Amino acid sequence: MASLRDAPRTPTSSLRDAARTTNGTSGEKIWLALEIGNTRLHWALFRGEILDNAWNTEYLPESIICQLAQSQTLDDLLLTISATQNKTREQAQEQTGGSSPPSPHLPTSSSLPPLLLASVVPSQTAIWETYPNVRVITLNEVPLKGMYPTLGIDRALALWGAGKTWGFPMLVIDAGTTLTFTAADANQCLVGGAILPGLGLQFATLGQKTGQLPLVEISKNASLPPRFALNTKEAIESGVIYTFLGGIKDFIQAWWNLFPNGKIAIKGGDRTLIINYLQVLYPEIATHLIVEPNLIFWGMREIIKLL
Ligand SMILES: Nc1ncnc2c1ncn2[C@@H]1O[C@H](COP(=O)(O)OP(=O)(O)O)[C@@H](O)[C@H]1O
Ligand SMILES: CC(C)(COP(=O)(O)O)[C@@H](O)C(=O)NCCC(=O)O
Ligand SMILES: [K+]
């Protein structure tokens, strides 16, 4: 989904102007997109409106962010990011099926690429302000109608990106640190949504807030646990996973009651696991889901066209 549907608008923003100084071989402007979630960082390198590469990293130490600001070239910058992240990069590859920090054989640039930042972690936003060419996206830049002031920018961007790419009405399910549902109607107006603890957070809470429950970790290829379990680990897996999937199914049915032709897109670190489970338990739902990890980047690309 790296191609465009709408013709690009006339570039007027400082971001786009700045981007002109950072050209790739074929002359497109190179820019970085960073989404800061509650667990980790999500990166994309764009050439103009084409997504060149997307990858995940852990949060970077403040000292490394300062070092990034000193980078002379894009290559230096990408090297600094990836040098801190070997372990995470492998995990990211495993999770996203191939995305990893781009290796530094990109065209050498004369200045740092602009960084478009969307964050739901204010303390992290603050430390990225040191990057010289950063532009923080705010909610009022997302053209969705009917948003409430404290709506997460990640939810707004993902919904906007999904709707502009596949059409409205659109429901976005983000299976990340939290599980969120965020929907808009055919008029691109927010219908609303829901927030609950994500899979990892549910397991972590049970492990941390009880006297006898172990910390359960689920691998992304795990098969479904027995529904009625006869040991503690499987009892936790059963309780969390079946209610999680049942909750997703229930929200989807409620969505289709409201909008029988409404579309559904799913993203987030647990999307693959969830899709695998849904294919077994509710295949008629699974076949209707658009699985797309980069929804927020599609949203950012749309915003950039408006700047
Ligand atoms: N390599 C990984 N690193 C961290 N979390 C992962 C990874 N692979 C899968 N996950 C799952 O994804 C969840 C985080 O979701 P994600 O969408 O990546 O983060 P965020 O909420 O920061 O946007 C974790 O709670 C975990 O269940
Ligand atoms: C709900 C969220 C915590 C999701 O963050 P994530 O799990 O993706 O890291 C984030 O979108 C947020 O802080 N939202 C503000 C509250 C709201 O959207 O209503
Ligand atoms: K997210």
From TrEMBL:
Residues that bind substrate: 148, 152-155, 232
Matches recorded under InterPro entries: ATPase_NBD, Type_III_PanK
Compositionally biased region (Polar residues): 10-22
Essential cofactor(s): NH4(+); K(+)
Keyword annotations from UniProtKB, A to Z: ATP-binding, Coenzyme A biosynthesis, Cytoplasm, Kinase, Metal-binding, Nucleotide-binding, Potassium, Transferase
CDD domains: ASKHA_NBD_PanK-III
Binding annotation for K(+): 174
Entry's Gene Ontology molecular function annotations: pantothenate kinase activity
Presence of the UniProt keyword Cell inner membrane in the record: no
Protein's UniProt keywords contain Metal-binding: yes
Location of the region described as Disordered in the Swiss-Prot/TrEMBL record: 1-22, 87-109
UniProt cofactor note: A monovalent cation. Ammonium or potassium.
Subcellular location: Cytoplasm
Catalytic activity: (R)-pantothenate + ATP = (R)-4'-phosphopantothenate + ADP + H(+)
Pathway(s) this gene product operates in, as recorded in its UniProt entry: Cofactor biosynthesis; coenzyme A biosynthesis; CoA from (R)-pantothenate: step 1/5
The EC number(s) this enzyme carries: 2.7.1.33
Positions of ATP binding: 35-42, 177
Chief localization: cytoplasm
Active site, per annotation: 154 (proton acceptor)
Function field: Catalyzes the phosphorylation of pantothenate (Pan), the first step in CoA biosynthesis.
Subunit and interaction comment: Homodimer.
Family: Belongs to the type III pantothenate kinase family.
UniProt protein name: Type III pantothenate kinase
Taxonomic source organism: Nostoc paludosum FACHB-159
